[in-house]
Write a structure and sequence with these properties.
Layout lengths: L1 E3 L5 H13 L3 E5 L12 E4 L5 H7 L5 E4 L7 H12 L6 E5 L8 H16 L3 E6 L5 H13 L1 E4 L11 H13 L6 E5 L7 H12 L4 E4 L2 H10 L4 H15 L9 H6 L6 H7 L6 H5 L2
Parallel strand pairs: 1-2, 1-4, 2-3, 4-5, 5-6, 6-8, 7-9
Helix pairs in contact: 1-6, 3-4, 7-11, 8-9
The structure holds NADP nicotinamide-adenine-dinucleotide phosphate (NAP).
Length: 287
C-alpha cells in the first residue's frame, strides 16, 4: 500500500490519480476530509503533520510514502515531524517531493534542509527535485492573461526549464511502483528552457491573440503579491525565486524524465494546447 500525502494539492492530486490508475493499492492522505476528492476505490486518511498520531494511523499497512510539504515558511518543521513518524522499519521507501535549485534560493533551500533531515534519519529515500511547474502559469497568471492579455514577473530574460506536473506525477508513479529507485535523486525538468518572452510567444501562437510579458522591478512584484493577499514570507520567497530565474540558474535541462519514462517530457507548447481553456475569457467568467 502506498500513502500519498498532500493529496489535495497540485502535485499530490495528480500523483494520486496516476498511482490509482496503475492499479497498485493507494491511500490518500489529506489534511481535512472536506477537501478530499479522490478517484473511486481510493482509501482516504486524515494526515496532519502537526498531529503525528494521524500520520501514524494513516501508515497502517503502508510500505511506501510520497511526502509533500506545503510551500510555506513551515515546510522544514512540518516535514521533520512527518519524517520522525515515517522513518520506521515498516516503510521501505520514502519518496520526497523536493525542488531543483540547491541552496541558492529560499524555496529550494528549505527542501535541501528537509533532504538533509531525511538522510540523517536513515529512511530509504528517493528525492524528486522538479524545476518550476508549467501549471504555475495557470495558477498565478491566467487571470491577468484573460483580463489584460498580460502576465507579470521579475525574471527578466532568465530562462527556466519548467516541467509539467503530469510528468512529475508520471515519474513519481514509476519510482513508487518499481524497484531500483532507493537512494536515487532525480532532477526533473521540461525538454527546453524558455524565457518569459518566449513563453508569451507560445501563448500568443496557441491562443491566437497577442500575450505580453511585463517585467517588474522586484520591489514592485513584492508589492503586487502583498496587495493580492500573499503573506510577507511567501512574497519574499517568490521574489527570491524570480531572482534565481533572472540569474539563469534554473535553465538546466536534465535527461532524468526521459530516462525514467522512456519518452520526452511535455513541451510548453503541448502544455498550453492542453490547458488552452484556462486562458480563455469564458473559462474565467465561469469561475
Ligand atoms: N510551484 C513550483 O513551481 C514548485 C517547484 C518545485 C517544487 N515545489 C514544491 O512542491 C511542493 C508541492 O507543491 P504544490 O503546488 O502541490 O503545493 P500545494 O498545492 O500547496 O499542496 C500542498 C499540500 O500539503 C498539504 N498540507 C498543508 N499543511 C499540511 C499539514 N500540516 N499536514 C499535512 N498536509 C499538509 C495541503 O493540504 P490542504 O489542501 O488541506 O492545505 C496540500 O495538499 C511544495 O513543497 C513546493 O515547495 C513547487
Amino acid at each position: 500500500m502506498i500513502l500519498i500525502t498532500g493529496a489535495t494539492g497540485n502535485v499530490g492530486r495528480e500523483v494520486l490519480k496516476q498511482v490509482a490508475q496503475s492499479g497498485v493499492p493507494v491511500r490518500a492522505g489529506v489534511q481535512s476530509l472536506g477537501k478530499a476528492s479522490v478517484p473511486s476505490g481510493v482509501e482516504v486518511a486524515v494526515v496532519d503533520y502537526n498531529q503525528p498520531e494521524t500520520l501514524r494511523s494513516a501508515l497502517n499497512g503502508v510500505d511506501r510514502v510520497f511526502l509533500v510539504g506545503p510551500p510555506t515558511a513551515q515546510l522544514p518543521a512540518l516535514e521533520r515531524k512527518a519524517v520522525d513518524v515515517i522513518a520506521s522499519p515498516d516503510v521501505r521507501q520514502l519518496v520526497k517531493l523536493s525542488a531543483m535549485g540547491g541552496r541558492e534560493a529560499i524555496f529550494p533551500r528549505q527542501h535541501a534542509e528537509s533532504e538533509d533531515y531525511i538522510l540523517s534519519s536513515g529512511a530509504p529515500y528517493t528525492f524528486l527535485r522538479p524545476n518550476g511547474f508549467m501549471q504555475n502559469v495557470v495558477n498565478y497568471s491566467s487571470s491577468t492573461i484573460v483580463r489584460e492579455n498580460v502576465f507579470y514577473g521579475s525574471e527578466g530574460n532568465g530562462k527556466v526549464s519548467q516541467i509539467d506536473i503530469r510528468d512529475i506525477a508520471a515519474v513519481a508513479t514509476r519510482v513508487l511502483t518499481e524497484e531500483g529507485h532507493i537512494g536515487k535523486t532525480y532532477t526533473l525538468t521540461g525538454p527546453e528552457a524558455l524565457s518569459n518572452t518566449q513563453v508569451a510567444a507560445v501563448l500568443s501562437d496557441v491562443l491566437g491573440r497577442q500575450i505580453r510579458f511585463v517585467n517588474l522591478d522586484p520591489s514592485q512584484l513584492k508589492q503586487a503579491l502583498l496587495s493580492a493577499g500573499s503573506p510577507e514570507w511567501s512574497a519574499d520567497a517568490l521574489v527570491d525565486l524570480q531572482r534565481l530565474y533572472r540569474e539563469g540558474k534554473a535553465a538546466t535541462v536534465t535527461p532524468d524524465v526521459e530516462q525514467i519514462l522512456g519518452r520526452k517530457p511535455t513541451s510548453f507548447v503541448e502544455f498550453v494546447r492542453d490547458y488552452r481553456e484556462s486562458f480563455e475569457p469564458r473559462a474565467q467568467a465561469a469561475v
